[in-house]
Amino acid sequence: MPRPAASAPLSIVHVGNFPFGLKPGFQHGVAVKLSNGLIRNGHLVLNFSDRDVARALAPLPTRKLGRGRANAALEEFCRHHRPDVLLLGHADVIAPATVARIRAALPALRVAQWNVDPLFEPDNVARIATKQPVVDMTFVSTAGPPLAALRARGPAAFLPNPVDFSIERGRADCAEALAHDLFYACGHPSRPKRVICGREWDLDAFFREVATRLPHLRLLLGGLLGRPHLTGAAYQGALESCAIGLNASRRPDHPLYSSDRIAQLAGNGLVVLIERTTGYDTIFSEDEMAFFGSLDEFYAQLERLTADPGRRRAVAAAGRARYGALFNERAVAQRVLDILLGAADPEAMPWARA
Predict the structure, then answer these.
(1) What is the CATH number of domain 172-326?
(2) How many CA atoms are closer than 13 Å to the CA of 43, on its beta-carbon side?
(3) For residues 198-223, b (16+ Cβ closer than 10 Å) or e, as one string?
(4) What is the per-residue pLDDT across 42-80, written as a single tens digit (0 to 9) for each?
(5) CA–CA dist 57, 351 (Å, integer)
(6) Which fold, 11-162+328-340?
(7) What is the pTM of this model?
(8) DSSP classification of residue 155
(9) Residue extent(s) of CATH 3.40.50.2000 domains in the chain
(10) How far is CA 318 from CA 110, 146, 246, 267, 270, in A?
(11) Omega of the bond prior to 192 within 30 degrees of 0, cis?
């Protein structure tokens, strides 16, 4: 059967962690943004929350006991709706054998998986690898040699972390004065430790040092120094109240890898404070993000931006505009379909600055 065109309206089943069930999901999640982008590009998207379905169909409210029934439910769901595309996002509940059976029943189906966890985590690479034999394309949020290593097992492409201005609704770049200077949130301060400027840090210790070095700095921290975690609307509200956001993932040495906080920071109009070794300086200029290569430069950037609100607002606005132009939810969703359907080169990286 002929392959559908990426520009034609498609029927897409998107399997991922959507905020549907009694266990609250993450409204800023990539799954939500990709589905929004696909819908806004004119496609029919049927979201299937594999974790919620597994919990709902289990004899006890745990997804582990409901895995088999969730797999059967997805198979029935796809047989009923006959999608053009099956998109799997961190769909660890779904077994490769289930995908293979769906493909056998729907020979024209195109299948992709996406994953925005780091490729320096062997368990994550193993999870990705289990589905590579049954998908047509794998999308990951890391470029360079780690992506090339993944391509040795099957077709793969870089997936930027999408921004969605219906989700990232804040405009910190428009505010002359804000309640807080620097924002950072994480699940746990020391498991695992983060590498910043070549040193492994317990983040409680890191931010104690920041507070000592810059005692005037107004910090808003989630899950650090004994402060509560921030989720849902509280997380969004925190972003809207901050001038600068530290974009520190677990390691800065995998090309273009970042947690999806980079889109949350840029999209809400915070200045993104990020290490040069991430490679984002090949996409954004010094007038669009605040780069640093040492702790001294990290502190200098904070001093400069907090002392000059006009400069802070200009950098934040320029970064938000460029990030939104390149990596908005429609553009990223279209890239996924273009590559999956053979309309774009999966190795092309068209965003680099001239």
Answers:
(1) 3.40.50.2000
(2) 29
(3) eeebebbebbeebeeebeebebbbbb
(4) 999 999 999 989 988 988 777 778 899 999 999 999 999
(5) 44
(6) Rossmann fold (3.40.50)
(7) 0.95
(8) -
(9) 11-162+328-340, 172-326
(10) 37, 30, 17, 11, 10
(11) yes
